[in-house]
């Protein structure tokens, strides 16, 4: 009887594993190879940056000429400053030209995981406990601080705070946008997503005077006279020249305008997108080891074989795709 039960369990396990489907393109236009190597492997990736094992880091501009102290992870490059933090609650802000320290500050029992800074050195922070802060570096005082709802699990594509004129827009880990004025007064809270898990804001930008924000399960477009939403399982959002490209978790690329009106859809069955970047085409990296190059109108696409499947962190800058300790330049396609 015991052998029969074990056989049945093994059969169920086999059936469960064999039912998983993978992206298998019918035609491959060619194969690409890496163009070069990084000084060290990537060990951490966020929305706007990646940190290497040796402390160097990559911003949206590419590999930066600076090495962070041991234990620090890069968060963002903004208005001429590097922003980094460690898991012990220490924040570090460095002038990107002089490499001089602008601020080093410790926060007890919480660590910054998203941040942005203005030219006049006001830094907006989102912490790993979902608390928010606006801090004046010059005046050395807290302008605004609050605690948001608990967040059990988050997507690694954590959006950084956004400055809209004199206003600060904080993306929270529980799917909200909190708008704060220069004095620290909360003006408005917008609900983006309502899921219990993986509900953090993964995309935040202003496109054609519309505030667009997304969680892994929803995207919204808001202006003073307009609002629209789409419920989708999103892996990423890409903005390029007045167009919004939505990459879904079930292998679909959806082209919309800034009002989220759907203009075109293109499906890649069982594809799992891990990153995207805009060049002559829209270039999307697929987990099994492919680069999908699709034109801006989603009419035609070519699929290229990547050197390997994607098992770890991937990061895209303006014209490069970084993986492990390698990089690939888009101009080759």
Portion in strands? over 45%
Number of DSSP-assigned strands: 33
> For the largest beta sheet, what order do the strands appear in spatially?
1-30-29-28-27
pLDDT averaged over residues = 92
Characterize the largest beta sheet: strand count, sense, and whether it forms a barrel: 5 strands, mixed
Question: How many domains comprise the coordinates?
Answer: 2
Oligomer: single chain
Overall helicity: under 10%
What general form does the structure show? globular
InterPro entries: Quino_amine_DH_bsu, WD40/YVTN_repeat-like_dom_sf
In a nutshell, what does this entry contain?
With 333 residues, this protein is mostly beta strands. It has 1 helix and 33 strands.
Helix and strand topology:
Blueprint: H1 2-18, E1 30-31, E2 36-37, E3 42-46, E4 49-52, E5 56-59, E6 62-67, E7 72-78, E8 81-86, E9 90-95, E10 101-106, E11 112-117, E12 122-127, E13 131-136, E14 141-147, E15 162-164, E16 167-171, E17 176-180, E18 186-191, E19 203-207, E20 210-215, E21 218-223, E22 226-231, E23 234-240, E24 243-248, E25 252-256, E26 262-267, E27 273-278, E28 282-286, E29 290-294, E30 301-305, E31 314-316, E32 320-323, E33 326-329
Parallel strand pairs: 1-30
Antiparallel strand pairs: 2-33, 3-4, 4-5, 5-6, 7-8, 8-9, 9-10, 11-12, 12-13, 13-14, 15-16, 16-17, 17-18, 19-20, 20-21, 21-22, 23-24, 24-25, 25-26, 27-28, 28-29, 29-30, 31-32, 32-33
């Amino acid at each position: 009887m015991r052998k029969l039960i074990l056989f049945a369990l093994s059969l169920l396990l086999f059936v469960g594993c064999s039912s998983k489907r993978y992206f298998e393109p019918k035609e491959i236009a060619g194969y690409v190879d890496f163009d070069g190597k990084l000084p060290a492997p990537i060990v951490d990736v966020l929305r706007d940056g990646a940190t290497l094992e040796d402390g160097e880091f990559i911003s949206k501009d590419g590999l930066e000429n600076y090495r962070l102290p041991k234990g620090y992870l890069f968060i963002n490059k903004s208005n001429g400053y590097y922003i980094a933090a460690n898991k012990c609650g220490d924040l570090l802000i460095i002038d990107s030209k002089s490499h001089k320290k602008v601020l080093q500050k410790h926060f007890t029992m919480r660590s910054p995981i998203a941040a942005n800074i203005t030219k006049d050195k006001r830094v907006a922070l989102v912490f790993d406990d979902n608390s928010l802060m606006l801090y004046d570096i010059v005046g050395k005082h807290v302008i605004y601080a609050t605690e948001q709802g608990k967040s059990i699990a988050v997507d690694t594509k954590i959006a950084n705070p956004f400055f809209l004129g004199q206003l600060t827009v904080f993306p929270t880990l529980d799917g909200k946008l909190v708008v704060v004025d220069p004095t620290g007064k909360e003006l408005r809270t917008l609900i983006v997503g309502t899921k219990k898990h993986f509900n953090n804001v993964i995309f935040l930008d202003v496109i054609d005077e519309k505030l667009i924000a997304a969680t892994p399960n929803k995207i919204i477009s808001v202006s003073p006279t307009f609002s629209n939403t789409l419920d989708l399982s999103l892996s990423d959002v890409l903005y390029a020249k007045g167009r919004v490209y939505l990459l879904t978790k079930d292998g679909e690329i959806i082209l919309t305008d800034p009002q989220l009106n759907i203009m075109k859809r293109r499906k890649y069955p069982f594809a799992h997108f891990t990153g995207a970047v805009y060049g002559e085409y829209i270039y999307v990296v697929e987990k099994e080891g492919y680069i999908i190059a699709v034109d801006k109108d989603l009419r035609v696409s070519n699929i290229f074989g990547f050197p390997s499947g994607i098992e770890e962190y991937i990061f895209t800058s303006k014209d490069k795709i970084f993986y492990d300790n390698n990089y690939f330049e888009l101009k080759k396609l």
